[in-house]
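Take a look at the protein record below and flag anything odd:
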Amino acid sequence: MTWAIGDIQGCFDNFQNLLTKINFDPNRDRLWLVGDLVNRGNKSLEVLEYVYEHRESIDIVLGNHDISLIAAYFGLKKSNPTIEPILNSAKAESLINWLRSQPFLHIDYNLGYAMAHAGIAPNFQLGAAKHYNDILQQRLNSKEVKEWLKIMLSKETDHFEPHGQNSDIERYALNSFIRMRYCYKNGYLDFKQKGSPYTLKRDDLYPWFDCPIKEKKELKIVFGHWSTLGFLDRDDILALDTGCLWGRELSAYNLESRERVFVKCKGIDIIK
């Protein structure tokens, strides 16, 4: 069985409760994790160690908090008490290097799904998304990773210029994979609005998956990142961030049978 699981963000105990509830066996099953394994939750090291230990049975994509951890490792972002144990671990180099090798996009044509932490840019076809994922992966694994991340984090790029500078194109692709929620009618991304589309009282913003210029994706897109959106299962998308970190639920979805499983999560002391 293949189970997709929403944002964990260091909530190790809830993660283990969910794995017990779905009877996960790494010798038999696979996990898809939508990113944001770490940060804010108080057992981020334990989550990362578990996923690394069972990496042969787990597919992940990187989220914004995972990139923040990598940036902190290279001294580009401030650390905090929830990722400090990772940075101080004797396994830090191995764990960070493994994270650096992970993709922003995971595709399985046989199952009929593609996974990205925040989603796939509305103006990207799946082939374009894969192309830019490959470029980002190469950059993240290069010897120049620190300088590249510094450029990527230096400003925001909210629209795609196919003939623009490489850094702007890569920054847009990165932002769409790990930070995107809303966009405007012309496809420009909005990074400020984080609220629920069910209560948003603005007619100029659209969830990225309902953007009027959205390119058709031939696979169903699995994503997380948007806790105020919550669980949403449509023919074209599957949203799995159900707010575990905020004391709501951690969700799992069987990609073969479409079974849904949730565990109620306990609130924790959150580091912002």
